Amino acid sequence: MCNEKHVVDVIKFYEECSRRKDTQSSKDTTKSILVFRSLEEGDREGIKALHEDLFPVKYSEDFYDNAVRNKSPTGSPLYCRVGLLNVYESGSNNDTLTLLNNENEMNDNARRIDIVGDSTQASMDELANFLGMDIDCFDDLDVENVISIKNEKSIEDAAESALNQRIVACIIGGFSESIRIRDAKLVEKLVRNFDNHPHMFYLMTIGSTQAFREQKLGTKMLKDCLKMIERVPTCGVVYLHVITYNVAAIKFYEKQGFYRIEEIKDYYNIDGVRHSCYLYAYFVNGNYPTFYQAITSVCRSMYSYFFS
Ligand SMILES: CC(C)(COP(=O)(O)OP(=O)(O)OC[C@H]1O[C@@H](n2cnc3c(N)ncnc32)[C@H](O)[C@@H]1OP(=O)(O)O)[C@@H](O)C(=O)NCCC(=O)NCCS
Question: Which of 29, 102, 183, 253 has its C-alpha lying 20 to 30 A from 246's C-alpha?
């Protein structure tokens, strides 16, 4: 697994490559990597552009200010990870290639984007602190580093438009104390025993640009996040809202084991038009759905299996 220094090395190397880019044809010799890291102040415009591209909902300027500080409006730490696509020339720096190759063979430029990740420990330490856990509790999070991207054309499109380094994916969410959530009915629906599970995790946004969809990048981001949450025994649930017509996201969450809890009418106001959403929940660390939530979810899955 790459650490923070490796990621910085990769970015420096990448910047050097981009300076030399004009003199060589890039298409035949480029390789691409996705670097995952926490959000930084300089990502504000990139993350805003990505959100405006991905979501019909307009987020406030405060949302982006808070996200790049990895802080929620109440000051509690956020879990924010972005995927930066880096395109670089292969073969021009063997040392760095060795570094990137240390776990994988990079033998098929056009078809594959390798992922390196760091856990940007400072923000994870803040999370641990907020949750009252040991500061090193997330140290050895074993994130999956590599996925294979299947769609050759998508990669080339992505690389072409990448302008060498560009945010192409992100996930943002945060823990809250259930006792501080104003909607007591919501908490009751999601947590069976408040003493055992005083924390909840709200998944605010997740997504990637079109070229990276349906290639398991969303699954990777969500699974990494769930692995982190499973380390927090006081957290019993991950919950989110999804607009009712977002079929891809609904199938995505259901595939990951999320339960549909209810429909909330007119939850979103997009350009003056009201839209309903579904509340979804993923139960962790010994918390569990009610019998009704479980049975309706099984019936819905069977219905989709046979009729869609
Ligand atoms: C939702 C989103 C994050 C999914 O990420 P992704 O990387 O495309 O999804 P994955 O490749 O990991 O897919 C995992 C599963 O999700 C489901 N899925 C994903 N995209 C789908 C689609 N377009 N249609 C139907 N099912 C889909 C499938 O069950 C898939 O499993 P399968 O490949 O074995 O069939 C992605 O579509 C996206 O970025 N959408 C725009 C932003 C958004 O709507 N975010 C959610 C807001 S609540």
Answer: 183
Instruction: Give the separation between CA 292 and CA 236, rounded to whole angstroms.
Output: 18
CB-based burial of residue 58 (10 Å sphere; 0-12 exposed, 13-18 middle, 19+ buried)?
exposed
pTM for the model: 0.83
Answer yes or no: is the C-beta of 255 below 6 A from any ligand 1 atom: yes
Helix (H) or strand (E) holding 190: helix 184-190
CB count in 10 Å sphere of residue 144: 14
In this structure, which residue's CA is closest to atom 17 in ligand 1? 252
Lowest mean pLDDT segment, chosen from 20-29, 63-72, 292-301:
20-29
Residue 282 identity (one-letter amino acid): Y
Q: What is the CATH number of the domain that holds 251?
A: 3.40.630.30
Which phi and psi angles does 188 have, rounded to 5°? -60, -35
Q: How far is the C-alpha of 206 from the C-alpha of 221, rounded, in Å?
A: 8
pLDDT in tens, 147-181: 555 444 455 555 554 446 788 899 999 999 988 88
The count of structural domains within the chain is: 1
Other C-beta atoms lying within 10 Å of the C-beta of residue 34? 25
Q: Does the beta carbon of 84 sit less than 6 angstroms from any atom of ligand 1?
A: no
Q: Is residue 173 lining ligand 1, measured as CB closer than 6 Å? A: no
Mark out the alpha helices in 55-151 (DSSP H runs): 61-68, 94-101, 121-130
Task: Name the residue with tokens 């995952």.
Answer: 36
In the block, residue with structure tokens 């009712």: 244
Measured by CA distance, the residue closest to atom 26 of ligand 1 is 248
Domain hosting residue 118, numbered range: 4-307
- Which protein residue's CA is at the shortest distance from atom 40 of ligand 1? 207
Nearest CA to ligand 1 atom 44: 249
- Tens-digit pLDDT profile for residues 100-131: 333 343 334 334 566 666 656 667 888 999 99
Query: How far is 115 from 217, CA to CA, in rounded Å?
Result: 10
Distance 205 CA to ligand 1 centre (A): 13
